[in-house]
Amino acid sequence: MAVMKPVRATPASVLILGAGGLGCPAALALGAVSLARIGICDDDRVDVSNLHRQVLFGDQDVGALKVDAFARAMSRRFPKLAVEKHAVRFDVTTAAELAALYDVIVDGTDNFAAKFLANDAAVLAGTPLVHAAAVGWGGQLTTVPARGRPCYRCLFEEPPAAGVGPSCAEAGVLGPVPGVLGALAGVEAARLARRETPAFAGRLVQYDSRAMSVRTVRFNPNPLCSVCSPGARIRALSAAEYGPEGCIST
Ligand SMILES: [Zn+2]
Fold this sequence. Notes:
Helix content: 25-40%
CATH class: Alpha Beta
Largest sheet: 8 strands, mixed
CATH topology: Rossmann fold
Bound molecules: zinc ion
Structural class: alpha/beta
Shape: globular
Strand order of the largest sheet: 3-2-1-4-5-6-7-8
């Protein structure tokens, strides 16, 4: 039996986008990894209807800013961890600065515009990104490595047009599903923080809780990708690229 190597201190920092059903379990997975800093970006408040999947929050937090409730919960569990609160919207005015402040980003946002923006900000900053999304009974994960290729746009070239896909009200998500995907995203982010090889780079991992199945689609850098290819047209973040938010769910 192999001897387990001791876990070395990891003076790295991770930014979590969205303190929701994906971001909360990702943070719990990361709390035990001896990070230097963890940042949380969310401008929303805790809502009673989301408590079942936002596992860091309880009744006492309803109405509070999520970043405040997040910091309280994480500091209780991990007193040595520095938690940095960003109670701002993740948009073209904040994304580039946030992406440059951290060593790793976890995308736990809930809409297409934010996911494309997170990808582009990460690629342009050279910051590795773990993408996670959950809707209905399943979800998906992929990692954009530090070198930026392949990226989320290599697979999904543009955000969907308005009206394509379910509305936020129609989408919904089974409560425990983002817990699974968020925890896996946290483990992957810990791997990146420890400068280990990412497990999901060039792989789209699709999880379906009904079939209890995991499917992996491998993909290569798109030579015509609009943000990560040598001839990329996106050289800076512009609101015109991201259109309506559209709904993934969480
Ligand atoms: Zn790309």
